[in-house]
Specification:
Elements: H1 7-13, H2 31-56, H3 68-81, H4 85-93, H5 95-119, H6 124-135, H7 142-148, H8 153-179, H9 187-216, H10 223-241, H11 243-274, H12 279-290, H13 294-304, H14 311-338
Main location: membrane
Pfam family, one: SBF
Region (Disordered): 1-28
C-alpha cells in the first residue's frame, strides 16, 4: 500500500531516455513532488498509528469489514487519476525491460511467500496471507521511492501500471496454485473482486483524468494524502478484526514480512543487474519487485479467508514503506558518490 505518484512526476518521466539503464537528471522539485515525498515519509507513521488504534479499540471498527473493498477502490481511483496515456507508451518503448520486471515480480514474490510460509511453519491462515501478499501487483509507492533512489522512474511506472492491469488475470491463479494447499481458494470470485476493486476504479480514474485533466491537475498534490489516509483506515479495520490473535502472532508475522520484503528488494535488484539493465533500472526493479499492493492483499484476505489472514498485509503495508524509504536513501547516496 503506498502513497501514489503524482502527475508532475509522470510528466518528467515522459522526457527520460528510453535506453536500458538510462535516467534523466531530476528536474525542478514541484509542490506535487514535495507532497508525494512527505506522504511517503509520513505514511508508515500514519499506518502504524492506525494499527495501534485498531488494536486498542477493536470494537470501534467492528462493523467496517464490508467497507474495505470500497476503501481500496478509492485508493485505486486515485491511482487512475495520476495516470496518463504516456504510461502505456513507455511499455511499447521498452517491452523487454517491462516484461522482465513483470516476470520478476510475479515469480519472485509469490515464490518467496510460499518458501517463507513453509520455512516458518506458519498456520494455514497466516501462510495464505503471506502468499497472497506475494501474489499482489506492485505497490503504489514504488514509483515515488524509485524517484527518491535516483532510479529509472519510467521503467518503474511502466511495470507498476502493467502489473496492476494484469492483476485480475495473474493474482487469483497464483494464489490458488500456492495457497490452495492451506485454504480453499475461489479463484473465480477473486477475479471478480479484483476487477471491481482495482481495474474498474483505475480505468475510471484514468477516464476522469483524460476528460477533466485541467481540474484534476489542481488536486494532484492532495491525492497521495487521500490514498495514505484511506489505506490507514483499511489497516485499522484489518487489525481490529484480528486483534485477539495479534499478541501471539505479531512477532512471527513481522519476521515473515521482513524476510519477504528484504529478499524481494535484493532479488529484484539482482534481476536487473543480471539482465544488464544498468544501475538506475536495477534500482527500479528492486522496488517494483519488493513493494506490494498490500491494500489489495488485505482486502482479498478479509473477503476470501479471514481477518487473521489479512494481518501479514497490514504489517507489510507499514514495513515496506519504512524499508523502501531507507533503501532509497542509501541507493541515492551511493548514486551521488558514483557520479
Amino acid at each position: 500500500m503506498r502513497a501514489r505518484r503524482t502527475g508532475t512526476l509522470h510528466r518528467r518521466v515522459q522526457t527520460e531516455p528510453t535506453r536500458p539503464g538510462a535516467t534523466a537528471a531530476p528536474g525542478p522539485v514541484t509542490a506535487a513532488d514535495r507532497a508525494a515525498r512527505r506522504a511517503v515519509t509520513v505514511f508508515p507513521v500514519l499506518v502504524l498509528a492506525a494499527g495501534a488504534v485498531g488494536l486498542a479499540t477493536p470494537g470501534t471498527f467492528g462493523g467496517w469489514k464490508e467497507s474495505v473493498p470500497y476503501l481500496l477502490g478509492v485508493v485505486m481511483f486515485c491511482m487512475g487519476l495520476t495516470m496518463t496515456p504516456q504510461d502505456f507508451q513507455g511499455v511499447a518503448r521498452r517491452p523487454w525491460a517491462v516484461a522482465l520486471g513483470l516476470v520478476a515480480h510475479y515469480v519472485i514474490m509469490p515464490g518467496l511467500g510460499w518458501l517463507i510460509a513453509h520455512a516458518l511453519d506458519l498456520s494455514p491462515q497466516l501462510a495464505a496471507g503471506v502468499i497472497l501478499v506475494g501474489c499482489a501487483p506492485s505497490g503504489t509507492a514504488s514509483n515515488v521511492v524509485t524517484y527518491l533512489a535516483r532510479g529509472d522512474v519510467a521503467l518503474s511506472v511502466s511495470v507498476a501500471t502493467v502489473s496492476t492491469v494484469l492483476a485480475p488475470l495473474v493474482t487469483p491463479p497464483l494464489t490458488l496454485l500456492l495457497a490452495g494447499e492451506y485454504l480453499p481458494v475461489d479463484a473465480g470470485s477473486m477475479v471478480t473482486d479484483i476487477l471491481k476493486t482495482v481495474l474498474l476504479p483505475v480505468v475510471g480514474g484514468l477516464a476522469v483524468r483524460l476528460l477533466f485533466g485541467r481540474y484534476v491537475d489542481r488536486v494532484l498534490g492532495a491525492l497521495p494524502w487521500l490514498s495514505a489516509v484511506t489505506i490507514a483506515v483499511i489497516v485499522a479495520v484489518v487489525v481490529a478484526g484480528s486483534a485477539a490473535a495479534i499478541k501471539s502472532a505479531a512477532a512471527l508475522v513481522l519476521v515473515a514480512v521482513v524476510l519477504h520484503n528484504g529478499l524481494g528488494l535484493a532479488l529484484g535488484y539482482g534481476a536487473g543487474k543480471l539482465a544488464r539493465l544498468g544501475p538506475p533500472a536495477s534500482r527500479a526493479m528492486a522496488f517494483e519487485v519488493g513493494m506490494q499492493n498490500s491494500g489489495l492483499a488485505a482486502s482479498l484476505a478479509t473477503a476470501h479467508f479471514s481477518p487473521l489472514a489479512a494481518l501479514p498485509a497490514a504489517v507489510f503495508s507499514v514495513w515496506h514503506n519504512v524499508s523502501g524509504a531507507v533503501v532509497a536513501a542509501w541507493m541515492a547516496h551511493r548514486a551521488r558518490r558514483a557520479e
